[in-house]
Amino acid sequence: MCVDSICNLEQNHQENPPNKYEFADIKDSCRIEYNGESIEFSIKQLINIKYLGQGCFGSVILTQLEHRPDVIFACKRMTLEILGNNDYSSQCDLRAMRDVGNDRHPHIVNFYAALIDLINGELVICMEALETSMDKFYSTLHSRIQPSSNLLDLFIRRLAKHIVLALDYLKSKNLIHRDVKPQNMLVARPVIFKLCDFGICETYNDSISLVLHI
């Protein structure tokens, strides 16, 4: 569990349905680089392991590749529509993940692939799977130990530093996250915080925010 690591700080539907939005460059299969290995798979090979959470525009599921228990993703599934908020959110999320998630920034969740689920009419974004989110981690930390004020200070300073580094990197890409909250801060060992969920991300030019379009 990540709680063990934080303690060390103190010491040191139908196929091609006509009413669904289509992404021309995304298919139901792909090839990716995963931990130095080239892997090809299709949407049918993704096996759901555990439900992780639900947002306004989609759900996130811990997913394993069929016959490959070592290949794990956090898959965000969003229903595709021709019009409406889901269409806007899915495009923003995918555009931002492609812009920043491929760069392997230490404080932004890694992006692996985007697939179309033709049966369910969903965009599936395959991302790095991390242990927990900040909102769950903080409550677990307090339930397991009684952190000292010094430990909490170190914890908060590290959290702030990592998220600010992530936001600064987004700024270098002319992106504004707009939804920074504990649920969108993921925790990895050894106490590394990463920013995720770019569904309502916007781009900016000089201090004037502009809606991100694809």
Q: N-to-C terminal Cα separation, in Å?
A: 39 Å
Number of β-strand runs: 13
CATH architecture call of the largest domain: 2-Layer Sandwich
* Unreliable sequence segments: 13-21
Keywords: ATP-binding, Kinase, Nucleotide-binding, Serine/threonine-protein kinase, Transferase
EC number: 2.7.12.2
GO molecular function, one term: protein serine/threonine kinase activity
GO biological process, one term: stress-activated MAPK cascade
Describe the overall structure.
This protein has helices at 2-11, 85-100, 134-144, 149-172; strands at residues 29-34, 37-42, 46-54, 59-65, 68-79, 111-117, 122-127, 132-133, 175-176, 185-188, 192-195, 202-205, 208-210. It has two domains: 2-8 and 131-210, Transferase(Phosphotransferase), domain 1 (Orthogonal Bundle), CATH 1.10.510.10; 13-127, Phosphorylase Kinase, domain 1 (2-Layer Sandwich). By secondary structure, the chain is α+β, with helices and mostly antiparallel strands. It starts with a helix and ends with a strand. It is built from four helices and 13 strands. Helix content is 29%, strand content 34%. β4 (59-65) and β5 form a beta hairpin.
A few lines on this structure:
GO terms for molecular function: ATP binding; MAP kinase kinase activity; protein serine/threonine kinase activity. This protein is α+β, with helices and mostly antiparallel strands.
Characteristics:
alpha+beta; Phosphorylase Kinase, domain 1; about 210 residues; about 30% helix; protein serine/threonine kinase activity; mitogen-activated protein kinase kinase; Transferase(Phosphotransferase), domain 1; three-stranded antiparallel β-sheet
